[in-house]
Amino acid sequence: MFVRVLPDQAAGKILDYRVPEPMRPNIGVGSRVRIPVRTRLIPGTVLEISDSSEFPTVRDIAGLLDEKPMIRPSLLDLARWMADYYCCPFETAVRSVLPVAVRDGKVAAKRQNSVRPARQIDESEIEALARKAPRQADALRAVLASDKPVLVSKAAAEAGVSEGVFRTLEKNGFVAIESTVIERDPYGGEFVATAQPTLNQEQEEALRAVVETMEKPDKPILLFGVTGSGKTEVYLRAIRHAIDQGRTALVLVPEIALTPQTVERFKSRFASMQDRIAVLHSHLSEGERRDEWHKIHSGHARIVIGARSSIFAPVENPGIIIVDEEHEGSYKQDEAPRYNARDMAVLRGAREKAAVLLGSATPSLESWHNCETGKYRLVRLNQRVDDKSMPVVRVVDLRRTAGNDGGILSRPLRQAIEQRLAKGEQTILFLNRRGFSTSLVCESCGHVCQCPDCSVSLTYHRAAGRMVCHICGHSARAPKACPECADPKIRHSGTGTQKVEDALNGIFPKARIARMDADSMTRKDSYRETLGAFKEGRIDILVGTQMIAKGLHFPNVTLVGIVNADLGLHIPDFRAGERTFQLLTQVAGRAGRGEMEGEVVVQTFTPFSPSIQFARHHDFQGFMEQEMEFRRGFSYPPFGRMALITLRGTMLERVAFSAETLSRKLKASAPEGVAVGEGVPAPLEKAKTYHRYQVSLRGPSSPALSRLARTTLDSLPMPEDVFVAVDVDPIHLL
Ligand code: ADP
Ligand code: ZN
Question: 615-640, pLDDT tens digit by residue?
């Protein structure tokens, strides 16, 4: 018996080994093994088993790392596909399929001692014992009080004795002590079962579509419905159906911070089987992650909820794979393999014959396009469950108010906050500070300097005094006055949440104000604490970044203010409009979730930009039509595909030169229809002391771009200190 093994940390080299007799019953495809390579022993993964090897001398496997194969063959296939499509080494892809916490068996199962009676013991014996050793008798009574084995620590606490007393009891033949595996449960606690509501007609139809797909796998379903239209309820029913059919369910949610709420809802609904729900996300300790993973691998867990990487959870026979908020950028992994978990869900669903359900209130253009071309099936939920109307959205034109009002908060927004404070209602103020606020925006007419060829805003490079397009490399001197209205007040915008908080404190000295962003949420529990305080009404105004934009439900919030809607709009990325629309729609969804009507105030220098106008009228369809036109015109995704090659290194000249060389080589071998960009500085020119350059590839299909990148890079030696990353279907172009 021979195996082909992929060694860890080896760039794609696959080696043959012989399997010694005793290991044969336990080895299989996906087994983790220890293999000799030259003079060392290293871990690796079994890819294939065969009766022969083409090599004359083959060494023996040194050992098995686990009792049974760790990676299911279907997941190995997925890894293979991923390596190919996303242009990364196979070993890197395999690595992401098996979490570090279980990879080398270094994180151990948590064990605790439990104790049970060793034999029948009657009362007279205990009394006899009590006379000579009262503490032993107390301890023994604590053990006998339970009809199941009890934890030694628990029995000791109950009897008020030390744990050593149980050892004495064991020596004297009264009890038996065993070490048992304890599962760490990050969401420990009791969940009260919740009843399931009767579905409305739209939900019924949606569920029927999902059930049909589960029975006869067809295409993925895009469930499009505004916040509060009952999508989650459809998920819960679909999962119930899968479980009733003896299958499993996989649920992906984007934000780690959201998971507690989601987990609570799922655990409550499936209260009778809550230990069969596994949760995987990056805030777990290694031990917790290991336990959750094994709970899935052993087949015990039937429902898995988690963030991006849970798409590789080793559940068997999934009936349904759900991707909530499918448009979310956080489904894209930002290091190799740079996969998109939503797209992997579609692929995994097709391979494992599971229904795939993508849900969103603001679907991505990619998914919408897939519905239009018939690749996905569109199912809508048009009504909010409670028939509540959408909040009123007011747009405040900062070009008019900036001059007379000065500060960050316009008069209409201040007044709206004042009213809320007077009525004891709550306000959320949102500022999207992400991205670089270095676009040039004219304060008097709102003009933003754009690239003539790319329809993205130009990035201001202060040092050089120039504006540069990061898609095509176009560059121009930064103007001293607005090219549109000649006003010299053209400048780069930039306001942080901190500044907003300060301003609020000045204007409303009595209000209770809290800030929530990456800077203020450094402790592990601060997120939960702040939200808890807000929920209980101990905070009047919550200021934050996109961290507070999504999924949260606060009935007493009747006002949402968007401090500067333009920040996200002018980053040099063709998805800027889409993101702004999604964000505004989602933030607006935070207002009026309770009995009271909600109001949204949007401050902007560009009140007529389509993202803002369509979001204001809750007009997804209108936004889509116009955004699709724009993308079609420039062959941007979803009409064309893209790959981005980023080079980084500490020596600027070397990075620039390598990027130029790479661009030239790519151009020389690019197939028809594939456009290769110049080597240009990345929008994020320098990060963590590295200079960054990019070369973009565009064409009709991603695999063609992937292939071109791979073959070119394979034959082009890079300087040792220049690192290359390939991103196929990039989400962030920075
Ligand atoms: P979404 O996921 O689209 O935001 P949810 O499924 O969370 O919507 O539904 C919004 C609210 O309405 C939740 O509180 C949910 O419990 C409730 N709900 C959903 N469907 C129904 C229904 N058919 N009958 C009554 N309440 C429902
Ligand atoms: Zn350009």
Answer: 988 899 999 999 999 999 888 999 99
